[in-house]
Amino acid sequence: MGCTSYGTSDEQKGCASSGTSDEQMGCTSSGTSDEKRGCTSSGTSDEQRGCTSSGTSDEQSGRTSSGTSDEQRGCTSSGLSDEQRGCTSSGLSDEQRGCTSSGLSDEQRGCTSSGLSDEQRGCTSSGLSDEQRGCTSSGSSDEQRGCTSSGTSDEQRGCTSSHK
Questions:
Q1: Which three-class secondary structure state does DSSP give residue 95?
Q2: pTM to 2 decimals?
Q3: How far apart are CA 68 and CA 152, in angstroms?
């Protein structure tokens, strides 16, 4: 599914955490720093953040950001439904989705996972290791994971291989 979930559909949550809107949570539960959410956080490049630039409402949603290419954002431009933004939806190029199709770098993909439908995982392509998926597994750099920092739980990371 691309992330974690507590009683909300993949389309609704985008990433993880209950009780917060898609725009608010962006990627993980509320009350965690941007660094833990693995989405925004000032002072890190778009590639490291895997989501948005700081200082806008987009920063809260952890999805879009003006002035950065789709590849850098790892998601999509604003004005798309949650399903489209989340990383899937047909009609967007792999680069725009920043999530699917083999042959894209970890930075471009942002996330992947085997055995789940595009809608479920929000990030596709089978046969990739956790490191390649840009979401989970300790021992890989933040740049490779595109979602986490070491020392945070799966729930905090907002992109896990468990609870899929």
A1: helix
A2: 0.12
A3: 27
